[in-house]
Design a protein that fits this description.
The complex is a heterodimer of chains A (about 350) and B (about 80). Chain A is about 35% helix and about 15% strand. Chain A is an alpha/beta fold and about 350 residues long. The chains are: A alpha/beta (about 350), B alpha+beta (about 80).
Chain lengths: ~350, ~80
């Protein structure tokens, strides 16, 4: 087996608190409460340990990271360590003075979520009046000269606005636009029947995305994330388990993948109890699906095992009950029928449940 | 024409891997020592001959063609742009 490399990136989920109520939220059903969040000193220690371990990219995320009053201090610290610090935000709470302070402290990049092409749809999907705040946030980021990424989660209730959302990202002068079809974890899994795009929607999106990539080349990088249930092969989840990235949840739980709490058979560890480097290199959870030794057939001898690493462990667990199974999205998986059944089921549900605390 | 790092791209030294790295949104690029030496001089002010001259004070046998090659690769990777 290959020698484990140091991680390149860390997703720091500072809090699960969020002003939005998006039905596609990928955070777990059971959120970490404010009382159980890591303290400022604990996060600072996490950043120190992460940099020492080799982390170069830090994504400050959540929930809404702006909900943490100590965000400026955390940005300063991670940035002084030499990390490239990105803020992953809804834009709510990003005022001119607050943002200028974060930029002074070394913030490098902002990822802004967008729910729809116009205020009416966007506010409906966010469950609050969010859209105008996003326009303001985008202006602030561009005025400060920072690179701006716009993140869109696509699903059945906004695919029809795809062109409008690309135009909105252009209007915001985004440097990068990520158009990601919903991946079904956490709260989103609960709403899968209502969120799963139709085959027709995906077919209509394909030429629109292709044209946008071509037309915007050199100005705005457009990244399209497929709806994996419709694909013959799984996504190369996390570029391999415990290979490049780690996630620290608001309470200090260290996750090999942001959705890994879904795997209830996995014993996760916490930075409050064990140093980050030990968790990365030695823990049962990070070693469980690292490399290829854990693979069974059909993955073990598959010519695609170094392309997609067997797909997503969380998805394998959610759909088959076995996290070491081949991702059932794969057409070579004996469980592909489970995914086909979901796709063939009449899309009855059109009402989704907005994100709440549980 | 002067080369500079594109907006949002930062050059830093990584002690863990003992190499210079370029950091940008959603990416890390490990640079070899030659590229790092050139990148440190890409400030949007220096021209290629300026960069060659500056490198010449530190290294023997620096050729403009080599610097051009390094820059062309970095432009291809969208981390350096011409102004």
């Amino acid at each position: 087996m290959d020698v484990t490399q140091p991680p390149l990136g860390m997703l720091a989920e500072l809090t699960h608190r969020c002003p939005l109520h998006c039905p596609y939220c990928s955070n777990p059903l059971e959120l970490v409460t404010r009382a159980n969040e890591l303290s400022t000193a604990q996060w600072i220690s996490v950043f120190d340990q992460a940099r020492e371990l080799g982390v170069l990219q830090v994504h400050l995320s959540g929930g809404e990271p702006l909900a943490r009053p100590d965000l400026p201090e955390l940005v300063s610290h991670a940035s002084e360590l030499g990390c490239y610090v990105s803020l992953v935000t809804s834009g709510l709470g990003l005022t001119e003075s607050r943002f200028a302070d974060l930029v002074d402290r070394g913030l490098a990049h902002v990822q802004l979520s967008v729910q729809g092409a116009d205020a009416e749809r966007a506010n409906l999907l966010a469950g609050t009046k969010a859209h105008d705040h996003k326009l303001t946030a985008a202006r602030l980021v561009k005025a400060a000269g920072l690179p701006l990424s716009v993140n869109v989660v696509l699903h059945r209730a906004n695919h029809d606005q795809l062109e409008g959302m690309i135009a909105l990202a252009e209007q915001m002068e985004a440097d990068r636009l990520e158009l990601a079809n919903t991946q079904f974890y956490g709260w989103a899994l609960r709403n899968r029947d209502a969120l799963l795009p139709t085959r027709e929607q995906l077919a209509a999106a394909e030429p629109v995305v292709r044209a946008a990539i071509e037309r915007l080349r050199g100005r705005m990088q457009v990244v399209y994330v497929l709806s994996d249930y419709y694909e013959p092969y799984p996504k190369p989840c996390m570029s391999g388990w415990g290979a490049q990235q780690l996630t620290v949840a608001p309470d200090g739980t260290v996750l090999p993948c942001p959705a890994a709490t879904a795997i209830t058979t996995l014993s996760l560890e916490n930075v409050r109890e064990r140093p980050l480097a030990e968790i990365w290199y030695d823990s049962e959870s990070f070693n469980a699906y690292r490399g290829e030794d854990w693979m069974r057939e059909p993955c073990r001898t598959c010519d695609r095992r170094s392309v997609d690493f067997g797909g997503c462990r969380c998805q394998a667990f959610q759909l088959t009950g076995d996290a070491a199974a081949t991702d059932p999205v794969c057409e070579r998986s004996p469980d592909r029928g489970l995914v086909d059944l979901i796709l063939e089921a009449p899309s009855g549900a059109s009402e989704f449940v907005m994100r709440g605390p549980r | 024409m002067t080369p500079r790092l594109r907006r949002g791209v930062r050059l830093t030294y990584d002690r863990t891997r003992q190499t210079h790295v370029l950091l940008f949104p959603e990416g890390v690029l490990v640079t070899n020592p030659t590229a790092a030496a050139v990148l440190e001089l890409c400030d949007g002010e220096r021209t290629v001959p300026d960069i060659v001259a500056a490198l010449g004070t530190r290294y023997a046998g620096v050729r403009e063609a080599d610097v051009d090659d390094v820059l062309a690769r970095l432009v291809d990777r969208q981390v350096v742009e011409w102004t």
